[in-house]
Structure prediction request, 205 residues.
Amino acid sequence: MPDSKRKEKVPPRDTRAAIIEAAVSILGHEGPAGLTASALTRAVGISKATLFHHFRTIDEIPLVALEHLALQLQAFSPVQKKRSSRRTIETLGDGARILVEQHRDFISAYFVFFGKALFDKRLRQSLANCGAQSRAIIAQLVRKNMKGVKTDRDVDDVVNVIMIMLDGLALHLLLADEKRPIMRAWSRFARSFPTKRALRKRPAR
Prediction:
């Protein structure tokens, strides 16, 4: 057969990665009950023997999928520009909204992991490890843009508040049909964020 007629050989599919992506999608659409061997093999187009060649048990897959999810979400990192504390909080909120709009399955799966982690110590530790990456990004923003936050304890407190609020924001954006009131409330939260003067005057503990 002439070279012009030959088909280019397609590289072999990364089956393990396909299983992980399918697991995240299933968790995001159907929750933990939907993550079964049958569902995964159908989604990926493989046999159960192939599935369990890559993973010993179904319970192992969420742990690996969570690590994959965290890497995907790290694609969002706020622009490291000098700005006010209000604009910093607003930017983080806009980032959460964009993630929900563009990666809904991933964010839904993230909250599924939250629920499962209540009863799974290994998953809880994995969530903590993944959260550390987000904490580091937010801590950099806090140190750079909130000059009234001077001590490591101040930074830790502010980062905790922001992460708690961002989780709540993302969850409500997932559940809401109308997102504008939620983002309006986030802007109000940003406007009410402690000023440099207020942080300096906070009583010592």
